[in-house]
């Protein structure tokens, strides 16, 4: 009997811990972001629900191709809470990614979201890297209509390996997933990381580090 009671309490504790670890559920129909609010919260404050209108929940222009004439040959068009205020507190967002031939979406992470990517046009090589110590590369070539998932926080990338332009749509599990592009963050931080630290971390000559920092 004592063992059963102990098991019951252990199960209850585990359930409570899981509940506390998950996102809280919305307590109202919606919370349209008030970009002008003076109150600082973890997210954005809500404007008066009576002032909500259709434009707070819509975005136009995702059919337009992004300009890929840049060094990496890709362009991300985000649709998050900055574009749709009505996404506030809903925990979802979207992005369109355009790729020139052999264009890449460079290695990056989303600190607050997992991502599910669908190829709309073209052919993409995609992949992500597991955490230390394995650092295993999980990669696949996707064709039109294929879907791939990138787990939250893991470094991932895409590359156009088709003959023409490619387009993908990405859904993310956060209203504001954030993005950390590895090369930009490491070699383009403000102020810059000391070149001797980077030289030792990447096993490079400091002259090479200086060159890379100048690029970013």
TrEMBL record:
GO terms for molecular function: manganese ion binding; oxidoreductase activity. It comes from the Eukaryota. GO terms for cellular component: apoplast. Pfam families: Cupin_1. Oxalate binds at residues 105, 110, 115. Residues 60-210 form the Cupin type-1 domain. Residues 1-21 form the signal peptide. Mn(2+) binds at residues 108, 110, 115, 156. Keywords: Apoplast, Disulfide bond, Glycoprotein, Manganese, Metal-binding, Oxidoreductase, Receptor, Secreted, Signal. Disulfide bonds join 31-46. InterPro entries: Cupin_1, Germin, Germin_Mn-BS, RmlC-like_jellyroll, RmlC_Cupin_sf. Gene3D superfamilies: Jelly Rolls. It is found in: Secreted, Extracellular space, Apoplast. PANTHER family: GERMIN-LIKE PROTEIN SUBFAMILY 3 MEMBER 3. This is Germin-like protein. It comes from Ricinus communis (Castor bean).
